[in-house]
Amino acid sequence: MKRNAIHVVIIIVAVLGGWLLAQNLHQKQLELSPTRATLSKLPLGGFHKFLSDVEWMFFVNYLGSLNTVDGDNVKQVVSRLERLMSYDPNLSKIYQEGAAMISIADPVKTVEILDAACENPNLKSNSQIPFYAGFVMVQHMTPPNHKDAIRYFKMAIERSGGKDQGNAYYTSYYYRAKAKVLAGEKKLDDRHALLQVLFNEWDDAILNSRGDVPTSEYNSQDLKERLLLAVRNTKNPPEDYKPTAEAVKLADEITKKVFSDAHLCHSCATAYCPGDKFCGACGTEVIVYGLCPFCKEVLTPGAKFCVKTGQKL
Ligand SMILES: [Zn+2]
Ligand SMILES: [Zn+2]
To answer: Is pTM beyond 0.85 here?
Structure first.
């Protein structure tokens, strides 16, 4: 009798101890892998990844059976995507290929799915997911949401190399989304707004390099080239664009501040060569540069002495 009582106590202690250990391990596991909390609660015995691969094959098959994803079947496609995510939230195909299937029929849900993937630490080096979130916002939402898309484009640039190496395609979308927002706020046409945005970025970058003003991540050759193109589009506009007087004024200001050493024609912003008296693109008279101070001939590039008179330059 006494022996039985001891056995019961030992069993209770063992069960309690086992339960505490399991709780503790579970907690540690969650700390190691935070996305585990979103995994399917089905008793899959750790075969989530395997199951997600199988499920993906079924998903692709299922998509093949649909003519198109529309209002009628989008809920079905979404629930399959959600099931895939519950098996393996780190499977990037779900976001890069799967979410694309629903982006037209349900852009809001698409962004919701992509946003969760942006926050997933296991996918934090993936730049395509945030880019695609921004892309869906400006391309498929009605009306387009440029304001919130900016954050995703910025994230995509940072993940693809940041500062100077960031993907130029992402950068285009980033500047254009910013320009759309500014155009709405200040009632500017899109190209004028883009010129202003690029100039602001450049200005921030210059101030930042002096060390007294925070952040611009985008001080690069790429930015300068975009700015020059925008200046040219304003000074020498294509047929479908009539820039306002303010836009032209801004382009002149930028030419003075940013491209003073670039020898641009003041009328059309095309670069001209040493010794040129007129712009080759529009025929406007330009300020001649690159002449020898002694004989007024065009200098040989890099020469230390005048090649006509032998004088030291
Ligand atoms: Zn010109
Ligand atoms: Zn000379």
So the answer is: no
pLDDT in tens, 17-70: 878 777 777 776 666 665 666 666 666 666 778 888 888 999 999 988 888 888
Ligand nearest to C-alpha 278 = 1
* Helix residue ranges, H only, the chain: 2-32, 48-65, 74-87, 92-93, 99-102, 107-119, 128-139, 146-159, 162-165, 168-186, 190-210, 221-235, 245-258
Evaluate whether residue 233 is within a structural domain.
Answer: yes
How many Å lie between the centroid of ligand 1 and the Cα of residue 282?
4
Asked if residues 55 and 84 have their Cβ atoms less than 8 Å apart, the reply is yes
Say how many Å lie between the CA of residue 235 and the centre of ligand 1: 9
- What is the Å distance from ligand 2's center to 235 Cα? 35
Instruction: Convert the pLDDT of each residue in 265-280 to its tens digit.
Output: 988 888 899 999 999 9
**140 is in which domain, residue-wise?**
50-186
Of all ligands present, the nearest one to the C-alpha of 281 is 1
Same domain? 219 vs 275: no
Kindly state whether residues 143 and 65 are assigned to the same domain: yes
Counting the structural domains of the chain, the total is 3
CATH (domain of 157): 1.25.40.10
